[in-house]
Amino acid sequence: MKLAIVLALSLGLPAMADTAADRFAAKRGFSTDIWVEWHSTDDMVHTPGFLDVYPDYPRHMPAGTFARLHAQGFDTVRIAADASPLLALAGTAREEGLLANLRQRVVAAQSAGLKVILDLHTYPHAGEVGDIDAILASPAKFTDYLTMLGKVAKRIADLDPATTALELMNEPTQDCAAIYSGPASSAWPTQLKRLHDAARAAAPALPLVLSGACWGGSKGLSVLDPATIGDDNVIWSFHTYDPFSFTHQGASWTNSPLMFVQGLPYPPDRLSDAEATTVITDALARAHAATGPIAAATTRADLRQIVSDYRLSPPDAVSAAIAEATKWADAHAIPHNRLFLGEFGALWFDDAGVQSDPASHTRFLSAKRRAVEAAGVGWSVWSFSGSFAITDSAATLYPSVCTALGLSSC
After folding, report:
1. Where are the domains of the chain?
2. CATH says 16-242+318-404 is which class?
3. How far is CA 219 from the centre of its chain?
4. Which of 78, 89, 97, 137 could cross-link to 380 by cystine, CB 3.0-4.6 Å?
């Protein structure tokens, strides 16, 4: 940190004070999952006992897992907590139990030796109280979210700021047009300021994790002016899953023909002409066997375009977002230890749990991890289990993942 101050002064920039965000300095982290067994908010609220374990990852994690992962080289866990139950139960007696559980999860992870980012993990819940799109679009829903955020911040405010950080909102979905196309209104900077102020009022000492709009990517971060926040005790987060065609091939939630594509290797230049043809033909067969509007609309031309674009990915596709984020940080004299790659990873299990191309998965994770560490930026891989899993059904780290992430005990 002293070097960052000297550099700032040499460039004629104001020196930033040493803060809890600097002392937090997450280096190698992993995310827990949001609900492993998917339920609607209504089901979660009305199923007896379901919310007694919140977030619910302990149901799927043997005792001692966090301590074991810490021993293998992780120093941070990003605890993903779906905010929907908190919003649905606001003002009720059950809200207190959820807040108590959140604090308990943080303290338990810290007792295992890990720093904790408590991530209020929003995502599209169409028609439900926690739907990120609705929260951002409705002034009343956004105000409710601010109130909830203040309660969470207050509940953990007294914990050690060197090992406790609060992520205010996961992947805000708006402003993509403004960021990529323009001109268009840009609502996120004002909302981000309000989120920051609500959390900071309740937790004066804790590092707060902030991100840009348009799904929290580096492009959204690059158009923010950190001076409008006016707080050095901030960790600036960004997510990157580039090249997206590789990391999200076969993912049904893309709602695009990519959901039928499988077999793209990493890096792209490993895909031969013959293999590309096979990938396209197999994907078209999957689309024909599926139902729904996306399947019906998917053509060979669509699939050929996906494969062609992937093969033409620039050599720096895996590191471009990292370079964009660090360029932004340098322009604002933000030290790289206050940047954080909050999510990266690749889908390598299909809906049936079948594993695909472990070698490509390993090459990708290694390339992304090496690029972010070369930039002096910490990271958190997505995620503990599921289709992006870093651990097996026994909650044991896959050896290939351990090696790709450069951990100390593989």
Report:
1. 16-242+318-404, 261-310
2. alpha beta
3. 15
4. 78
